[in-house]
Amino acid sequence: DPEELAIVERTLAPQTAVLALLRHMIASQEDTEVRSGALLALSLTRSPEDASLFVDALADDQIAEAAERSLRFYGQNEGSAVLSATKTAGPVARGAAISMVPLVARDGEAVLLLREALGAAEPDVVVAALRGLAELGQAQDLPHVCALSSSDNPSVCVAASHTIAALAELYPEAAAAAW
User: Global pTM?
Assistant: First the structure.
């Protein structure tokens, strides 16, 4: 019915304008408090198209804390969108986003993303993946994690050791076989 459609359009148009304004504020405002507030407000809408905006904001030191809080709100219902956004994020944002994975998703897709990130070139991404696997990993992850314990990067070695310890508590037989 055209009349009902017009009512829906009039109702949603202001919301669309508000969302566009929030996105614009995040991208162009100088004031970090305004940008942070806009991130938090936008996170409550849980629009899948905004996942990459929150992930990218993690790389901005001025609003990273607000981006993390926003991802927690947002990710409660949009975990798969956050997981997808981590795959295309820049190195700094990707490491920060991967560290958030256990907070926004705990399913098989999240574990697969963490496993893939173990092969990243950036140590921050690998460390974040190891920390995530310490919470979400399974017995089959132990051989890959053990291999990283001899990395040239000290941060990766330490994170791998912590992950081995966490997984060994859950899977002692697999840990003995992997070591």
Answer: 0.72
